[in-house]
Amino acid sequence: MQASIPWTNELLDAARQQGDGLADSLASLIFSQGSGLAPTSRRLGYNHLVDLADVLATDAELFLVKSSRLNACFHEFPEQLRQYYEPMPAPAWVEPDRLRLASRLWLDNSLAMLGVLYAASLPACYLIAKGIPALYDTEKLREQKYIFQRIYETGLMLDAVMDPGGLRIINDVPPHDSSHRHMAAALNDLDPGGFWKPQDGKIVRTAQAAAGASALDPAALTARLHKTLSAQGSERYVWGAGYIAAKKVRLLHASMRYMLLNPPSHPALQETAPPATFSDRLRRRREAWPVEQFGKPVNQEDLAYTLLTFAYLLPKGLERWGCRLSREQKEAFLHLWRLVGHIMGVREDLMTDQWEAAEHLFLAILARQGRGSPAGVALTEAVAQFLKGYLPAGGGLKEHLPYTLIADQLGARAGEILDPESWHRATSLYGRVLRGGTRAGLVLFYRLYAVVDRCHFSEVVFGTLAHRTSEELIASWRDEYQRNPFYIPTDLTTWELKRGVDAAFQARLTAWRERVFVGVFLAVALIGIGLGLLAAAGVLAALAEWSSFRLVGACGLLALLAGLWRMQWSLPAVFARRPRLAAAPLPAPTCADPP
Questions:
Q1: Which of 130, 133, 159, 547 is exposed most, by the fewest CB atoms within 10 A?
Q2: Which residues pair with 237 in a beta bridge?
Q3: Contact between residue 352 and residue 5 where contact means Cβ atoms under 8 Å apart
Q4: pTM
């Protein structure tokens, strides 16, 4: 177990003045005038490296082929940048079983977790007035076009690191040893009566399996093989799409830090158009960042706090909405995000995978830095507007529910980052009724799910509805933007909407998202009503109230069948009708000027 760390003011004050040495040196390599390339060329080179890293995450085998275009492009970059995206040694404390448990939590609760992300995690970030809000120009935040992109990217990163296999531990076989022998040892650990052994280039079971013996679990076999290899002194490495996403965000943070600490000394070029992105605004700054007042931009204290808005607030928010989580599940979630923090260069003494310690650190930083600011209010309003794009217009949901959800998750602290009108909507009689009704509905859903799960019907009844819905919503974000996530902007077009994404297309996309929301709500509500009525019918049968039993039972069966129909057939049909642009052929990887 990780030892408790005294997070004193002195330690956190020092963390406020610290950036990220490795990533900062790479950002300097990319942006420094000594590189011999114009700023736009340097950014293009970095962005091309991001493209290659995406290919590497999905088709890593191409990198092993020396004649491949991917291999040739990578070797045109400086060695420091090539090495940055290679698999990194896994810290000794990482436990793959806990990573898998955390990913399972995401699969089962991804839709609710996205809700907590936008109702708690991001607004909590905006409470740190010296952190994220201080980077923004409040006057221009009313133009929310580029804030939505940052919100969208946050959801993408969450999906990348939390999906199964997004962060995985791979083992290197010890030299002069046989991988077959290690596999046989792992099989014998799980199936000691099988007497598995290498034979003729294969691994065979030399003892006959007992009648009725269950098949070996592939996940358990993989976990046992990891342990066997580790016991033999095998090196372990971190890899996966989530690893690449975390590394890209780390370097993006360093690029922001570099631009803020090193503003251009020459006059700006003729730039009459308003800045299209947050990073573009940073590029136009002419005054150095006030380090003494705010600390270094994107400093270690801010990074540690932001990490906890995911690692700590996401499971805490699920619990607030009725999801019952064990301590093991919550600490597995912290464990995964501790690995994310390690990948992103957060100091080890500013991370924990113990629940009480995480709560202590979160509250300690919030007490030091948490307060409202005009920029924090504007950013929170941007999140609320983002959420409104997913809600139906009836019943005042669009006007009230986003603020109600934020107030429900953050309590009185939400009043510091909501403007007076929005706070009134959240705390009015209608807002309080809506808050209570929403939370009661979520609690009832989780109770219903627990009952169905105990009866081993959860896969039949709910399947992967929540995760499929969240994946479809994330895909709808990708449909809007032409910019590759986590790029460093090169000009005013890098964050624009895709060609063809006009007001009419966005209206269709908004209407589709509303249909998804209504469809999920109706499916779950009908299943809940159906199961409730069937339970009532069972009571009536026990009381021999046969006429009432038949009526209530028939209504319950019809409601249950209607809910299952909506879930198994109607919703997939809605997913299939998601507005899409005409697909353009993907260009083959080409090399670009390296930074």
A1: 547
A2: 89, 170
A3: yes
A4: 0.80
